[in-house]
Amino acid sequence: MSQVSPQVRAAHSPLSKLLVGWNASEQKVRFPVTFAVERETSSVWSLRMVPAGIAQLAPALTLNAADRLVLLSGGGVGAVYAPRVRRGVPVVPSTLLPRLVAPVELIHVARGRAGSIRAEDIPTCLLSDPEAALPESWGSRFALSIQDGCHGIIYSRERALLRSCLRAYLRSYQRSVLGEHGQLPPLPDALLDPLLEPHSPDTYVEVLFQPSDRYWTLELRLLQAGSEVPLDESLRWVCEGEGGTWRSGWSW
C-alpha cells in the first residue's frame, strides 16, 4: 500500500478552518482535495467536492443559452442581474451561472420548460431531498449547491454530466498547482469512469497531484471519514508531464 510522506501530507493541509476554495494566501500550502460519488436514489447520483467553485464547474455543464436556473438561495444575483420572479420563484438565465457567487443553491431548467415552474415543486433544501432536486417537469439535468465558498455537490441523473464535472474539478486542481502556464494532458473517459462508481456515505477520495521535472503523478486514495489510512491500494496515474498522456500506473 502506498504511503504518503509527512512532508507531502503537510503540503496539502488547510491553512485554517476557513475554507475558501483554491485561493490560499500561501500557494505552497493547499487544502486537501477530495471528492465522493454517491447513489442518492434509484435514479439520482451526486458528486461531492472540496474545495469546489462555480467558475471551475460552469464550463462542464454545457448549458443552452435558452436554459434557466431556479435560485433557491444565494448566488449574489442582486449585484449582477434582477431575477425574474415566476410564481414566487427567482429565475435567471443560464448564461449568468459563471457570474454567480457562493453560497448558492440552484436547479437547472431545460429550454422551454420555464412555464412548468411551480413553487410547490421546489425542495426546501437540496441536501434533504435529492429526488425532488431534479423535477422531471422542468427537464432538470442537474442541481448545484456550493456552501461556505468550498463544499460543493452536484446532483444529476446523467453519468456523462458527472464525468464532465469531475474532469473539470481535477483539471482545476492541476491548474492551481501549475499556474496558468503549461499544457495539461487530457483526462480520458477510460480513467475517469471507474471513479464514478458510488462510494459508501462515510468514504471519499483524496487527490494528490505532484508534478516533477521528469514526470507527473496523480494519486487517488480511498479514505474513510476520520482516518488517514487508505481502505485499499491507492490508484496512481502517471504521465510524461506537459504534453504527455495520463496512464494508470508506470507503464509507458
Please explain how this structure is put together.
By secondary structure, the protein is an alpha+beta fold. The chain has 4 helices and 12 strands. The chain has helices spanning 6-10, 54-57, 159-178, 189-192, and strands at 33-39, 45-50, 68-75, 84-86, 89-93, 101-109, 142-147, 151-156, 203-211, 216-224, 235-239, 247-248. A 12-stranded antiparallel β-sheet has the order 4-5-3-6-7-8-2-1-9-10-11-12, covered by helices on one side. The chain is globular, with a radius of gyration of 19 Å.
Indicate the proportion of strand residues: 25-35%
Compressed to H and E, one letter per element, the order equals: HEEHEEEEEEHHEEEE
How far do the termini sit from each other? Answer: 22 Å
Q: Number of helical runs?
A: 4
Radius of gyration: 19 Å
As laid out across the biggest beta sheet, the strand order is 4-5-3-6-7-8-2-1-9-10-11-12
Q: Mean pLDDT, rounded to whole units?
A: 81
Portion of residues in helices?
10-25%
Structural class: alpha+beta
Biggest sheet overview = 12 strands, antiparallel
Number of strands: 12
> Unreliable stretches, pLDDT < 50, 5 or more residues?
1-29
Globally, the shape reads globular
